[in-house]
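Subject line: Sequence and fold of a protein, written as structure tokens
Enclosed: The protein record, placed directly beneath this head.
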Amino acid sequence: MSTISLRLPDSLHEHIRKVAEQENISINQLATLAIAEKISALETADYLLNRVSKADKKKFLRAMAKVADTVPEKHDAL
């Protein structure tokens, strides 16, 4: 486990303290979760950009042409 020193504006620190208290977790746990969420979001975006760069529009349109053109069932309708 590593330790870091982080400088925060007082207002942000107070807000973090309140959120951690509401969530019944420590400030360290909240920071760790927030960092993990951010990393996950960035890695997901990179993954999706990589996938889309490999997309083949012709294959997509061929696959979509096989989908029946029907009205969705009542419980599936938007």
